[in-house]
Amino acid sequence: MVKDNSLSTKILTLIVHITMIFVLIVTLYPVLNVFASSLSSADANNRGIVTIFPIGFTLDSYKMIFTAGAVPRAFKNSVIYTVVGTLINLILTTSFAYPLSRKSLPLKSFYTWLVIITMYFSGGLIPLFILVKNLGLYDTMWALILPGAINTTNLIIMRTFFQNIPHELEESAYLDGANEFVIFTRIVLPLSKAALATVGLYYAVGHWNSWFNAMIFLSDQKKFPLQLVLRDIIMLAQTLQQAAEAGDLSARQELGLINAKGVKYATLFVSMVPMLAVYPFVQKYFVKGVMIGSLKD
Amino acid sequence: MEVTFSKKETFQTRFKTFWKSMKKTKYLHLLALPGVLYYIIFHYIPMYGVIIAFKDYNFRKGILGSEWVGLKHFIRFFENPFFWRLIRNTVLINVYQIIFVFPLPILFALFLNELRDGFYKRFVQTVSYLPHFISLPAIIGMMVMFLSPTDGVVNMILQKMGLPTIYFMADPRWFRPLYIISDIWQHLGWGAIIYIAALSNVNPELYEGAVIDGATRVQMMRYISIPSIMPTIVIMLLLRIGHIMSLGAEKVLLMQSPLNYETSDVISTYVYRRGLVYGEYSYTTAIGLFNSLINLTILIIANKITKRVTETGLF
């Protein structure tokens, strides 16, 4: 093989490596900094000297958010919404994706159009809000779960996966007297564990990270998920800060009282930790999902 | 007579075969039923609900009982002094996204392709996905804290350099740059996946042949890698352009305050505020409808262009 020693190649290699290192630093530093700050003393945080290692190591911030305030309850709510929501997502998505994957299903094109149209046109925020109110879902956890019970991209990923299961398996089961329902639950689903895991994790990440639906559909603070509580903490800090900058003394005092920076960092980190813990292990499945999802029919 | 009769019969026989195959696949339709109901209830009923854009929606009278008012709400929106500001802000953020956010994942994928397979490459790739898994409130939360004028690290550095403090989150001039930079941060790695996949499908013989011909790495990138992912780039670009008038409210709402409305207020946040906070249901539904119609038009045009350029369209 000819060795490529040209100047342009050397420059390219240099640029590539600089870019990669830059991406690594810029991506990792903020997250590590948040983690380190959440474990640092108030003094170190206020002086702004924490980088990626805790200074004046303390677990006080975590003790504080997990013994008082809205965080423990919100954490529990988020877990419930994520688990129940994902389960319902998976049941509805797979049971609709399976018929859509069958080549010779009568009405198949009707079903497909029913789904495709919604990708390009929707009623918008307000009609959905009115619907949720009229259905009596407002201020219940179902308002966070039912309106997004099926995500069309995930439906397509699931259908594509089902399409690739050898049809002969189903055929022989059918000849043995199994009906489609039995075939679906006993043969197709057990063969689809990888796809179920991928799509399930997509849904779970979505539920865990969502806050907007909770903001518009929930009024009872006891039902708030963690991300919404986090948003309120951040927003409060922002508003107080702006007031303090405008010279509002009481705001300045209040800011001093609640501005345990570590507490904010700890809340932030707690909101990220489940996803940070799982993503390195599951990202390869996710990547496959992205590629299937971007396929067109 | 005979003609209609035979037509009727073919219809009947057709219906019979249809019914027979429906019966044969009844369990499949039963499986599909919850999904169909979901789409009808949570997608089609809200589409029907859009008619309140032409009515004065009254909670007591319901969607059907409320009075028709024609295009009143649309006209009110067009005459709104903020109309152009909302359009400008929505479109500008999208244009900046296309200019700055769109090309970087492509570049990142090309650069990643230059690395040899191994731990280093996998590590960079895995790390680059990380921000995708962080929620928007957390991302904006980090931004607020790092950029805080009183104790944020960025302003501390500025101070040490003898520069004036910048009120990043409150300054309308900083809204768009911050929105775009955080978008890049969050989506660089994840957005590259599709191009990485396209690059991995390039026939390795092309590169081998190029090496024998004495091509440099830069030449291979230019004449093999980039042309082979061009169709993907074009489709992604046109898809992106198709959404130039739409921008979700979620991220903007997290970064927004009355102090930066000048650059931050977009159609979706205006709809949220006037609709859900002030309860102007009909007016904001009209705005939403106007917005989605424009979107749909742009998307159809973009799709036509895609079809002409790449012979495959979105629909």
TrEMBL record, chain A:
Q: What is its main location?
A: membrane
Q: Which residues cross the membrane?
A: 12-32, 79-98, 110-130, 142-162, 183-205, 265-282
Q: Which SUPFAM superfamilies match?
A: MetI-like
Q: Where is the signal peptide?
A: none
What GO cellular component entries does it have? plasma membrane
Cell compartment(s), UniProt: Cell membrane
- In this chain the ABC transmembrane type-1 domain maps to 75-276
Instruction: Classify the protein's membrane topology as the record does.
Output: Multi-pass membrane protein
Task: Supply the alphabetized keyword list.
Answer: Cell membrane, Membrane, Transmembrane, Transmembrane helix, Transport
GO BP terms: transmembrane transport
Family stated for the protein in its record: Belongs to the binding-protein-dependent transport system permease family.
User: What is this protein's record name?
Assistant: Binding-protein-dependent transport systems inner membrane component
Could you tell me which species this protein originates from? Caldicellulosiruptor kronotskyensis (strain DSM 18902 / VKM B-2412 / 2002)
Automatic annotation (TrEMBL), chain B:
Localization (cell) = Cell membrane
Which Gene3D superfamilies does the record cross-reference, listed alphabetically?
MetI-like
CDD domains, per the entry: TM_PBP2
GO CC field: plasma membrane
The residue ranges of the ABC transmembrane type-1 domain are: 87-302
Topology class, membrane:
Multi-pass membrane protein
Q: Which PANTHER family match?
A: BLL4140 PROTEIN
The identity of this protein, by name, is Binding-protein-dependent transport systems inner membrane component
Say which species the protein is native to. Answer: Caldicellulosiruptor kronotskyensis (strain DSM 18902 / VKM B-2412 / 2002)
Provide the taxonomic classification.
Bacteria, Bacillati, Bacillota, Bacillota incertae sedis, Caldicellulosiruptorales
